Amino acid sequence: MFDRGQLGLRAEALAAGVIRYRSALNAQRSLSVVIPAYCESENILHTLENVTRALEPLDLAHEILVIDDGSTDGTGALVTANLTRFPGVRLLVNERNMGFGWSYRRGVEAAALDHIVMVHGDNAWGWETLRDFFGHVGDADVIIGYTRQMHRSRTWRRTVISKTFTLLLNLMTGRRLKYFNGLQIHPASVLKSLRIESSGYGFQAEVLVKSLRLTNTYIEVPMDLIERKHGESKAFRVKNFVDVAKTLRLLRALESTAAAGGRAVRVSGR
Predict the structure, then answer these.
(1) In terms of Cα–Cα distance, which of 205, 214, 114 is closest to 165?
(2) What is the dihedral of CA 6, 9, 14, 19, to 10 degrees?
(3) Domains of the chain with CATH codes
């Protein structure tokens, strides 16, 4: 049995350990922003404006990588023509359309900084919500964004599909996450070590589930979504539904064979 003095010392030691852990995370505050874009000529410059404006006042070393996934509408040429406006941007071009997940993996391989986030090229996030999200780098190993009041910014059909997908994944993994397909900031060393099998819209869930098994802590951050004003969403394609179904089967198999332990825990943010 511990007396009160011993318990007090143990509590102080635990608190000191948490402070040291967060201090170590904050010492590595740098961020690679990966922006996959497929036929987003109407949105890509607005996306870059919001990302650069969000990063500008933050004490955060950063780089921005645009992955043009074989666009046929001049998306890549538009980025190239505006590199003087966005000097921190680097453009990588896929010779043909390789898919969302493949482009993300290419961006991860090319990223040079300590943390990595993917931001869609469809201008779905304003600079205010991006600035708040990016500002959490260092608060935990994994920063998970979720859409605040999704029903106000998504159609009822897409909201139901998203909520159902989240429910299924939480049942499979035993977690209570608010969203698996939002923006996520991961340690670069973890992402570069992962073997990601999904290639379409299911890949984000696979990345998150596997990353949380290799890290210690995470926080969830609410974000305000802007529904796209230009172009058509690529989410509701048959191949994406097929890929999501494959991802669910893959993660179910992973959870059924994975050993206990190695699960990140939720911590409070700033």
Answers:
(1) 205
(2) 180
(3) 29-137+140-266 (3.90.550.10)
Buried b (16+ CB within 10 A) or exposed e, 175-196: bebbbbbbbbbbbbebbeebeb
Amino acid at 60: L
pTM for the model: 0.82
Length of the chain equals 270
DSSP string, the chain: ---HHHHHHHHHHHHHHHHHHHHHHHTT-EEEEEEEESS-TTTHHHHHHHHHHHHTTSS-EEEEEEEEES-SSSHHHHHHHTTTT-TTEEEEEESS---HHHHHHHHHHH--SSEEEE--TT--B-HHHHHHHHTTTTSSSEEEEEETTGGGTS-HHHHHHHHHHHHHHHHHHT---S-SSS-EEEEHHHHHH------STTHHHHHHHHHHHH-SEEEEEEE-B---SSS--SSS-HHHHHHHHHHHHHHHHHHHHPPS----EE----
Q: What residue has token string 């049995």?
A: 1
Amino acid at 37: A
pLDDT at 188 over 50: yes
Which candidate, 247, 246, 235, places its Cα nearest to that of 210? 247
Per-residue pLDDT reduced to its tens digit, 102-150:
999 999 999 999 999 999 999 999 999 999 999 999 999 999 999 987 7
Q: Which of 56, 30, 194, 189 is nearest to 113 (CA)?
A: 30
Task: Please say whether the beta carbons of 125 and 201 come within 8 A.
Answer: no
Instruction: List pLDDT tens digits, range 163-187.
Output: 888 999 999 888 999 999 999 999 9
Quote the pLDDT of residue 262: 58
Bridge partner residues of 94 (DSSP): 69
